[in-house]
Structure formats: C-alpha cells, structure tokens
Amino acid sequence: MKLAVYQFAPRFGEKKENLERVRGAVSGLECDLLVLPELTLTGYQFTSREELAGLAEPVPDGWTCAALSEMAAGLGCHIICGLAEDAGERYFNSAVLVGPGGLVGTYRKAHLFCEEKSWFTPGDSGFNVFDAGDVRVGMIICFDWLFPEAARILTLRGAQVIAHPANLVLPWCQKIALARAWENRVFFVTVNRTGAEQRGTLGRLEFTGQSQVVTPDGEILFRLGEDEEALKVVEFDPADANDKMATEYNDVLGDRRTELYGPLVE
Amino acid sequence: MKLAVYQFAPRFGEKKENLERVRGAVSGLECDLLVLPELTLTGYQFTSREELAGLAEPVPDGWTCAALSEMAAGLGCHIICGLAEDAGERYFNSAVLVGPGGLVGTYRKAHLFCEEKSWFTPGDSGFNVFDAGDVRVGMIICFDWLFPEAARILTLRGAQVIAHPANLVLPWCQKIALARAWENRVFFVTVNRTGAEQRGTLGRLEFTGQSQVVTPDGEILFRLGEDEEALKVVEFDPADANDKMATEYNDVLGDRRTELYGPLVE
After folding, report:
1. Tens digit of pLDDT for each residue in A23-64?
2. ipTM for the complex?
3. pLDDT surpassing 90 at residue A203
4. In which domain, by residue range, is A158 found?
5. How many Å from the N-terminal Cα to the C-terminal Cα in chain A?
6. Which pLDDT band, with edges at 50, 70 and 90, does B29 fall under?
7. Are strands A2-7 and A230-235 parallel, antiparallel or unpaired?
8. Tell me, what CATH number does B196's domain have?
9. Closest C-alpha to B133, from B189, B76, B178
10. Of B182, B247, B260, which has the smallest distance from its Cβ to A176's Cβ?
11. Which of A191, A190, A238 lies closest to A216, judged by CA?
12. How close B31 comes to chain A (CA, Å)?
C-alpha cells in the first residue's frame, strides 16, 4: 500500500484556511491512505468549552467530514483526520476514517491530555478496527500512545496499521513508538503537527513534529524533521503485520497469558 | 536506596564455579538490593529436559536458595537471582527474592522464549510485588519485557522497582525498556549476562549485556557494555516511582480506561 502523511502547522480556529493548506499539499497525490494530525483543521489549544463548541462539528454531518469525504473521493483514497466532534452536549477529541463513499469509522480519544480534560469528554468508542480498502486500520490519538493497552487492543482486533494522529509536545512518543510497533508487530504511523500555539493558561506549546512510520520489525521507514512541513509518501505491505512471530517459537499475541492478566481490567 | 547489578558470563552447568564468581565480585559490597541475571548459576541453553532436571533445584529448599540466603545475610541486603526451579514434575524459569532471613518471594517466568518452551512450564505465579526492605519490588524475567502487560500489572500492584533478570540475545529490550519505565513511571532494572553459549540446535547464542537502570522519568542511570563484566552500584530514591503524574493533569495509572480494556483479557 501507499501511505501518505502530511505534517504541517495549522492556524488555530482557521478551519477553511487549514483545509486549503491540506488541499493544496495533497493535490494530485496518489495513495491508498492519507493520515493527517490530531485536530487538523481547528488547531489544538482551546481556552474554553464555548470556544470548542464554536469550532466542533457533528460526525458525519458536519462541514469537515463532508470536505474530507469530497477529498477522499477526488483522490480515490481513504483519509484519517483528527477533528473536534460535537456529539450534542458532549465534545470528543476524535479521528475519522473516511473513504470515497463517506464515513467509515470514528474513534473518540480515550486518554485525554492536560487541559483537554476541561473541555472534552473522555472517549467512549473503545478501540475498533476498520477496513480502509484492503487494509485493516485502527486509530489512536496523541496521548493514547502512552497507554500500551490501546495499541494492544487494536492489534488483538486485527489492525495491520495503527494510525496515530497527534499534536505531541513531549519528547517521548517518537522513541517509544518502537515499543508499540515491535510489541504488537504492527505498522505504527504517528502523524504530528509542527509549529506552536500560545493561548490560554498553559503557555507556549511547541509541537514536536517528527512524524514517522515504524514497521512490525522495528524499522523506522522515515522520520520527518521537528519543524518540517511536508507531505511524505511511503510504500509497504500491510500483510507484513500478519506475521506475529517474534522468533520461530514466539507469537507475540499467542504467547500472551490472559489468565494472568486480570489485574489489567480491575 | 543503593542498587547493585552484576553482569558477567556464567559457564554452563558449573553452578559452584559461577557462585564463586558472584561471591568474589560482591565481596564487601554495600547495597540494599543486588540483582543478578536470569539462570545465573546454571547457564541458559539446556538441551534436554533431563539436563534441566539435573541442574534445577527446589525453592526454597535447594542449594542455590541456601547459598543466596547466606550471601544476603553476609552482605546485609536483599538479592534477586534467576534460577531453574524444580517444582516436582514441573520446571520453571524462576527468579527469587531472598533477604537475610531467607526467601521472600518467587516469580515464575510467564512468557517463555524459544526452546525454553521445550523444557520449562509457563509460569503460574502471576505478577506479584514483594517488600525488599523498604522497597516494593516486582520481578519479570527476560522475554517478559516484550509483554507490556507484565510490567503494568506489577506497577498496578505497587512496584517501585521492576527487577528484570535476563539472558537477552535480541537487540530490542534495552531500547524498549524506556517504554516500560516511562509508561509506568517505575525504575526498570535490566540485568543481562554476557558471553555466548553454543549448545543444542539453536546454534551460537550471543548475549547482549548492556544491563541498565531506567528511571521513572526515562533517564538511563547507566548502561554497561555488551561484553563488560562488572559490578555496578547506583543510588536512587525508589519513592520517585510513587509520583505517577506524567503532567500536572495526567496520572499514568489513574488515566487508564479499564472499562474499555476488556479485550486484553479475552
């Protein structure tokens, strides 16, 4: 498959301008799956629930979903994009998978970071896997990376590719992504934004870029720069993630000792 | 606390000689906890169940446990050491925690690596935490590192230090240990052996050394060389592992969404 990621610095609140940035970047793109960052069109650092309410949209009936579906139809591909979801009285930090035919699946961020807890509701979707064409894809968002449970469940449910839209400000994820890829033997695709935002009480947030794809064998297929704005396309065979053998004797899923794992859900 | 690790190359089957190596190395040592590798006194690569039966010992009534208890009493410390456990009809790749008063706790390796599956029984102890003096310690062994479930459960049960006796031959653990330490905010202590063994059908096994201690903040306090034989002592405050806040808003345990984690135990 051909997977594309677009790393850039959206401008807070300028959804139309940010969409035009994406549209311009992906014009003529040939790929099977395009992954965009967390909260791609709104920007990240909300300062109130009211501000979030003004920028969030229903899924799939909002403007952003319609624009993404149109883009997917035009490019003939699937797109994963982070967005602020208005679910009526509740707002989720979500990611959608859209194809040429419209919405395929939604993921609502389970593990909220910092002040997100003040405006967003913790995701209730659980960790589900969807078909993006011939590829089985799961989604997690940004801080979910820290919780091995998330990527593990997606792997158990058959994800070959874990798409990870992010607005990372800490320096750890890009290193620890190796763990998520290798312990699950999946493709782990982190798509981070660049730039900075200075809004609200948290001070200046500097996003760390370095979007990357790690293979089931722990190979980093590419890692973009910290400040680089770029569309990157990479080709790999998602079926490589079907081989769960870490050694001739060891299946990373089959060797799990679920009868000993009860404390994980207590 | 003062934590010591001893990295060396035991000689297969030579339990007394290997014990003398350890004794000589730790003579006069001042520490609270000494961690030794997996299968410290027997060596690693058994070639038959009969060979294992000839080297394995009951716990706590075997020669190795007695020798370790005597060493712990002499040094006035606790010791964690990997050994081959004879449990009558079943053999476990185990680790024991002994103090000046004798056995404190046993861990039986849950996730067996390669040909270990031919001789050892998968561990049935689960993942338990023990008091080593004032420190709450959990044990995992070698290949367990790949399964985030193991270190996670020990953390949930209050481990401040995860001791990880190992005979590593793959190049991944020492990198991915950063994930285990940071995702759980614990001290993660890998004690690997050096040298090589060429026995049985797997060919030459080269152990990768690089014993290390990673802090809850992701700092590598030290990493020994690949071939270095060394006793290393390091000092840290295990209470640093009590702070589970990754940010002012984020508790790495409290933020877990157990209601979504059911698939982990299915």
Report:
1. 999 999 999 999 999 999 999 999 999 999 999 999 999 999
2. 0.97
3. no
4. 2-265
5. 39
6. very high
7. antiparallel
8. 3.60.110.10
9. B76
10. B182
11. A238
12. 31
For the entire predicted model, the pTM comes to: 0.98
Q: Which of residues 115-154 of A touch B (CB under 8 A)?
A: 115, 117, 122, 126-127, 143, 146-149, 152-153
Q: Report the b/e string of A119-137 with b at 16+ CB within 10 A.
A: bbbbbebbbbbbebbebbb
Q: Given the structure tokens 């997977």, which residue do they identify?
A: A3
Residues 158-177 of A with CB under 8 A from B: 170, 172, 175-176
Residue A256 touches partner B, C-beta closer than 8 Å: yes
| Nearest CA-CA partner of A48 in A115, A141, A137, A148 | A115
**Cα angle B53, B57, B61; round to 5:** 150
Query: The tokens of A226 are what?
Result: 């910290």
Q: Are B52 and B120 in contact (CB under 8 A)?
A: yes
As for how many domains chain A has, the answer is 1
Residue B69 in contact with residue B98, Cβ under 8 Å?
yes
A258 with B248: Cβ contact below 8 A: no
CA nearest to B111 within chain A: A255
The nearest CA of chain B is from the CA of A257 a distance in Å of: 7
Active site residue A142: yes
**Per DSSP, what are the bridge partners of residue A230?**
A7
Q: Which residues contact B180 (CB under 8 A, 6 or more apart)?
A: A179, B145, B148, B151, B162, B186, B188, B214
Compute the residue count for chain B: 266
- Residue length, chain A? 266
B15 touches chain A (CB under 8 A): no
